[in-house]
Each structure stands twice: as C-alpha cells, then as structure tokens.
Amino acid sequence: MNLQVAKKTLHELIDQIEDNELLILYAKLLKREIRKVSSQDFFNTTQSDLISRAKASLRSVEEGKTRNIKDFKKDVAVWKKDRAMQYLN
User: Fold this and answer.
1) HEC profile for the chain?
2) Plot region of 65 (φ>0 → left; ψ -120 to 50 → alpha; else → beta)
3) SS (H, E, C) 18-29
4) Cα dist. 10→15, 50, 58, 86 in Å?
5) Each residue of 24-75: pLDDT tens digit?
6) Max Cα separation, the chain?
7) Rounded to two decimals, what is the model's pTM?
C-alpha cells in the first residue's frame, strides 16, 4: 500500500467512527507522532528536579497544605478532560 492509499484508507476509517473519546485518543496519538515526542523526552526529569519536588511536597504536608482525595480525583479528571480537548484543537 503506497502512502496516498494508506492516508485515504485512514481518512475513510476515521470518518466511520462515532465514538468521541476514541477520536480524541487517536488525535492525541497522531499529534504526538507529528511532534515526535518520545516517552523518554516527556518524562525526562533530572534527579535533582525529583529531589526538589519531593522536598517541596514534604514541606507542604508539614505546613498542612493538603487536599482531600475526592477533591484531588475530581481535579485530575477535569485536567485529563482538558488535556484531551487540547489535542483536538
């Protein structure tokens, strides 16, 4: 299959999908491929960065700056939804 045929086939398949969440995931995957961001680049954090973040977290706990788990989970769900929508724009 040549490149043009492969692209045409992909377009035709996508046009048949009615699941919005699935389309969001495909868009995210394709945009990541276009940007060529590997998982190593995405999670590339130095040891000193990790130590600094851990110390900051411990200070927050000592200062009583914590959140209830239900609120945290709600915030994460909203964040995930917002991130997914960014990939469609």
Assistant:
1) CCHHHHHHHHHHHHHHCCCHHHHHHHHHHHHHHHHCCCHHHHCCCCHHHHHHHHHHHHHHHHCCCCCCHHHHHHHHHHHHHHHHHHCCC
2) beta
3) CCHHHHHHHHHH
4) 9, 41, 48, 22
5) 888 888 887 777 655 455 556 788 888 888 999 999 899 998 888 999 899 8
6) 61
7) 0.37
Residues contacting residue 3 through CB under 8 Å, at least 6 positions apart? none
Query: Cα–chain-centroid distance for residue 43?
Result: 12
Q: Which residue has the tokens 């769900």?
A: 77
Q: Using alpha carbons, list the distances in angstroms from residue 54 to 61, 72, 80.
A: 11, 18, 23
